[in-house]
Design a protein that fits this description.
8-stranded parallel β-barrel, 6-stranded antiparallel sheet
């Protein structure tokens, strides 16, 4: 299988140009100087920090070994949670974590995972046909999100659970009154109520969550929405509050997420949004709708995570940019029923789902993570930012050791993936204000794929700093970008660039720094700031006047 070597490809292209006399002719599109224009005085929507959210499911080593090792482990831990993983996740300022699934959520019964470890219930986990010991349950998860400085997104069991079970779980987590469940929580080590920012009503109702139609799912959702309430005094906000005060509003209220469509199933979206719009004004049954969209060619686990060629790379770049079309299909329907954009679109499962080639059990979904994955992550995050008026959370699948993860572990060893570094570089965009941007660049062509060479977003953070993220999709040609700002003279840009010798370069435990960001700085000459972008790279810089 062909592997890309950028240096050799460049030499070949130069040779062909020489023998054809092309060096004396008009330069190719990739060689032309591109430009980016932005006007900081015309800001756009806020890029909700939750767009950079994470997802942790009970699959393979996603929890056990990846996050939870137990208090008796030789691996350094705090209350059983890996200290090295916590440190790494704190560095990328993880805003929210979705748990316990995924498909696993609709078979999860929370009572089996609370109380003394010795009394937890052993269950079969179909993801690999292994034992689920329930050692990592509600209190352990809440301890984990507290350690990494994050918020909780709890996915309820709407498939095999009951409304009463869900209501009890919310009471266990959130009430400050001395109920039996609150006393049980206190006995398990947490007197104060937990904060739950998001609640999900099941997962993939159209598939593993019950194989329901949209109408069947909505009929089931209603009871959960009415009875599964957050009792935390800081977050209380229920339908009954609106019944007595139509103007009641709590900005800290828990957000309720309906399990929405798969990929481009717009009929599911239409059905849900139509019923949302018809609900009584005092009883909005959900505040957000989820969307699941994975990047793959023929289906899950069909594409190589390493040793792939340029054609494979170009295909995935194209698929990543296609996220824009997928979101647009659903947001156009949502706008019809919700022109005020009250209902958020939550892309709570997405990522490159590739062959699980570094685990003995294929259903552990443990795959390698290359520079290509980092580039497609940047392209997808840029799409979310451009749709920030409707997309207000996303959760990449998944956080540790599963699918397109931030972190890989092997016993005591841990490494950061190229995708992790994208999330670290993009921290300045959390809760930043999007600035409209105009890009005039060349094209990247491979076979029948024709993409813009450069993709970029710009934003102003809460401290007034201007940031620019630029992705050069072309794996062979560099790009020189002239930056043009209206009403401001930029004298320099400073930040980081992520690239590697090949698009299939990965970080391994014996070579953990093969793909890491490097410092980069640009200085204006003759009042012009020229940004030089290496091939197959992501560059994030702060613009300074």
């Amino acid at each position: 299988m062909k592997t890309i070597h950028a240096f050799n490809w460049s030499r070949i292209r130069v040779f062909l140009m020489l023998i054809s006399g092309a060096m004396l002719a008009t330069p190719s599109l990739a060689e032309q100087n591109s430009s980016i224009r932005l006007n900081p005085s015309q800001p756009g929507h806020t890029i909700n920090r939750d767009i950079f959210g994470q997802f942790a499911e009970h699959i393979g080593e996603g929890i056990y070994g990846g996050i939870w090792v137990g208090e008796d482990s030789k691996i350094p831990n705090v209350k059983g949670i890996r200290a090295d993983v916590v440190k790494a996740l704190r560095a990328i300022k993880v805003p929210v974590v979705r748990w316990p699934g995924g498909c696993y959520a609709d078979q999860y019964h929370w009572r089996e995972g609370v109380g003394p470890q010795s009394s937890r219930v052993d269950r079969i986990n179909p993801w690999g046909n292994v034992i689920e010991p329930n050692h990592f349950g509600t209190d352990e998860f809440m301890e984990f999100v507290q350690q990494i400085g994050s918020e909780a997104y709890i996915n309820l069991n709407l498939g095999s659970g009951t409304v009463q079970e869900a209501a009890d779980w919310l009471e266990y987590m959130t009430t400050d009154l001395p109920t039996t469940l609150a006393k049980q929580r206190a006995a398990n080590g947490h007197t104060a109520p937990y904060r739950v920012k998001y609640i999900g009503f099941g997962n993939e109702a159209w598939g593993c969550g019950g194989a329901m139609t949209a109408d069947e799912y909505f009929a089931r959702l209603k009871a959960y929405s009415v009875f599964a309430l957050n009792h935390n005094p800081q977050q209380r906000f229920a339908g009954i509050d609106l019944l007595f005060d139509r103007d009641a509003h709590n900005p800290h209220a828990m957000q309720r997420i309906a399990a929405g469509p798969n990929d481009t199933d717009t009929a599911f979206t239409e059905a849900l949004m139509k019923k949302w719009a018809a609900a009584p004004g005092y009883l909005p049954l959900f505040d957000a709708m989820s969307l699941h969209h994975y990047t793959m060619t023929r289906g899950p686990m069909s594409d190589a995570s390493q040793d792939f060629d340029e054609s494979d790379y170009a295909t995935f770049a194209q698929l990543a940019l296609n996220m824009d079309r997928v979101i647009t299909l659903h947001t156009e329907i949502m706008d019809t029923y919700d022109p005020q954009k009250k209902v958020a679109l939550v892309v709570d499962e997405w990522g490159n789902w590739l062959k699980p080639d570094i685990a003995e059990n294929p259903k552990f979904l443990k795959q390698q993570n290359s520079l290509r994955d980092a580039i497609t992550a940047s392209l997808t995050l840029n799409v979310f930012a451009r749709h920030a008026d409707r997309v207000r959370m996303s959760n990449i699948a998944q956080m540790v050791n599963v699918i397109q993860s931030m972190i890989l572990t092997d016993g005591e060893k841990m490494l950061l993936t190229p995708t992790y570094h994208i999330y670290h570089m993009y921290v300045p965009f959390q809760d930043a204000t999007l600035i409209p941007i105009s890009i005039d660049s060349g094209r990247y062509r491979m076979d029948d794929i024709n993409l813009p060479q450069i993709d970029a977003i710009a934003a102003r953070d809460a401290n007034g700093k201007l940031w620019l993220a630029l992705t050069n999709i072309d794996p062979v040609d560099s790009a020189d970008i002239t930056l043009q700002l209206e009403g401001m003279v930029v004298k320099s840009a400073k930040g980081e660039v992520l690239t590697a010798p090949r698009v299939d370069t990965v970080n391994r435990f014996d070579e953990p720094a093969a793909v890491v960001p490097k410092p980069v700085k640009f200085t204006a000459k003759n009042s012009r700031l020229l940004l030089s972008l290496p091939p197959k790279s992501v560059t994030v810089v702060e613009l300074k006047g």
